[in-house]
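Give me the fold.
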Amino acid sequence: MCLVIAAILSGTLLDLSFRGSLAEMMNAFIRYAVLFIILQIFLVVVLGLVGSSLSPAVNGLFQIFLKIYGPVIYIVLKLGQFKGESQMVAAVWLGLPVGILTYGIILGLVISYLGRGRA
């Protein structure tokens, strides 16, 4: 934690210089964000199908993978004000795609930010 604060104060973490154009930086962000979104969709579908039909061990892995999206599902649950059965189902069905998009965008931003100096 102290190292992060020191990096912020020294300006190295917030340095927004980029050895390329803004268009190149945006292209890198979009490319990485789409890559991570597709990867997450693939993992959710494959782990869900394999876990429900073939192996209980993979189903446990799918449950762990779903816990990653827990904070987003919780936010959707609170903001959606669902009642009854929709409180159990709709929050997951709406929270999972929102979580995939949110985490894809965050990972795309982080990777494009970390790779900004390589041009």
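The two ends are 30 Å apart (CA to CA).
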